[in-house]
């Protein structure tokens, strides 16, 4: 069974640009959550989707948005990029409704660098 | 103050040593406790999952939870170079809240 696939693996952008990251969950998994990982802050929760509906959102500005499609694939978008958005963005999928009560399977992440 | 505190290290030990990794937390409502391992340029993978005070063993790994002290530990026996990774603790409150520690970078030297 294929794992969680995130594309692209690496991305370099400049301040003010926008970026879209993609995540394909494990086949059959309906819940997808996104995390930002930085050396200083660790893993911080961005949002969680189940059946195309956002179920939970972390404390990030509105520049960070996401969506989930009918096939459970998910995208996240960051608009008006800032230097502080440089981070590893991780997607995790789980089988059930709530990612907090299920085993999470993480992708390898997208390393975003903002110059 | 962060809800979950974890020393980021780095921690370097010789092969074969017993490794002790720890997290403290301030939120007494946390019910479930996990340890994830993250290799360089990879996503975290779940190592251990516990929901009660006491010890849980899986091979060379032992997870320990002390709810009265709000303290959890992960012990690695007979450590191997392949155990070199970042170890993250994580805790769950209810159905909505999952909080990770900052992660401890561990290196096992041959």
Kindly summarize this structure in a few lines.
The complex is a heterodimer of chains A (115) and B (110). Chain A is mainly β.
Uncertain residue ranges of chain A: none
Which percent range fits the helix content of chain B?
under 10%
Tell me the total number of β-strands of chain A: 11
Task: Supply the number of helical segments of chain B.
Answer: 0
Q: How much of the residues of chain B is beta strand, in percent?
A: over 45%
Shape of chain A: globular
Radius of gyration of chain B: 13 Å
N-to-C span of chain B = 37 Å
Mean pLDDT of chain B: 93
The quaternary state of the protein chains shown equals heterodimer
> Overall 3D geometry of chain B?
globular
Biggest sheet of chain A, in brief?
7 strands, mixed
CA-based gyration radius of chain A: 13 Å
Helix content of chain A: under 10%
Biggest pleated-sheet summary of chain B: 6 strands, mixed
Distance between the termini of chain A: 37 Å
Please tally the β strands of chain B and state the result.
Answer: 11
Overall pLDDT confidence of chain A: 92
